[in-house]
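Shape matters. Shown next:

___
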Amino acid sequence: MRKKSRTSSQIRIERIQSRMTEVISLIIQNELKDPSVSPLASVLRVNVTKDLRYAKVFVTVMGTDEEREETIRGLEKAKGYIRSRLASAVDTHTVPELTFVNDTSIEYAAYISEKIREVMGNSNNEN
C-alpha cells in the first residue's frame, strides 16, 4: 500500500497548528487573569482551515459542566487578547479567527475504559 505524501502546505499547516496549540496553552496557563477560566483547562489541539482564516481550539476542562461552560465563555471573551499574543508568536500573515470548543474526548475515553473494565470484571467473575 502506497503512503500518501504530504504537500508543503499541509506540512506548514500542521506546524502552525502545533505552534498555536503550544502558544495558546501557555497564554491560558500563564497570562489570563480571568477567574472564569479554569486553571485545569488544557488545549488538546488546534485545527486551522487551509486558508488560515479560522481556527478551532479544542479545550478540555477538568470539572463540572458549569465550570466547562464558564471556561469556554471566558476564553471567548479573551480571544482578542489571545489573538494579539499569537500574532507575535506564530509566523503567519494573518492570525486566524479563534473559536473555542469544549472537547470531551478524554472524558469519553475514560467512560469507555471504565465500561470495558466492568465487562472484563464481570466476565472474570463468571469463570
The chain has a mean pLDDT of 89. The beta strands are 41-48, 54-61, 97-102.
